[in-house]
Known about the structure:
Elements: E1 2-6, H1 13-27, E2 35-40, H2 47-59, E3 65-69, E4 81-83, H3 90-94, E5 104-107, E6 112-115, H4 124-128, H5 131-143, E7 146-150, H6 159-164, E8 169-175, H7 181-193, E9 198-204
Parallel strand pairs: 1-5, 2-7, 2-8, 3-6, 3-7, 8-9
Antiparallel strand pairs: 1-4, 5-6
Amino acid sequence: MEYVELELQELPYEINEEIKLLRTNLQFCGADKKVICVTSAIASEGKSTNVLNLCRSLTEQKKRVLLIDADLRRSILRKKVVKGTIKNGLSHYLSGQCKVEDCTCQTNVPGLTIIFSSVVPPNPSELLGNRRMVELLKAARSGFDYVIIDTAPLGMVVDAAVVAQYCDGAILVISVNEIPYRMAQDVCHKLENTKCPILGVVLNKVDRKHGSRYYGKYYGRYYGRYYGRKYEGYY
């Protein structure tokens, strides 16, 4: 098992309190909600940052947390490593090139273990849907209090839907004024089709000066603005 140190920043008080609220809401979803996938509609909505902060918050309550970086196409979490070497990752394990203990990393956050994504494979969706992924999550259930899976944006590629079918619940990260309402609906429908319950939505990048909360619960409507951004090409 490797050891890595992550670049961690002190969160502002307001954001830290909202992360705690997110953590509390997750815990009140029930003890049976252990394996959670987190996705977004498009890239750069703050998904991976929220995932890491949620995991850190859970460990503050002495929870054993496994963070799986299942964004095999464009990992952000690897950029957080400031010390240590990632020799093997999730792609190596899923393709049968290493054992799970060879791609597991202890971190400088007590209680937090991470499996990074590693090299970009030619067949991400197929790897995430194979038998070894099922075996990994089955073993992780017995070894950790929570398994948080950071997945690729579901509005761009299907990977998150493949992973969601093995999870107890899903969290969707949505940025204000980043995507149209119909796209948010489409992502929700894709998750619902996997039979994975949507536990809630993180409303990200809200301007607090206007009195809005950093996080918000999704009540069935999302107001966005379409800026003509292209959503293809997530590789």
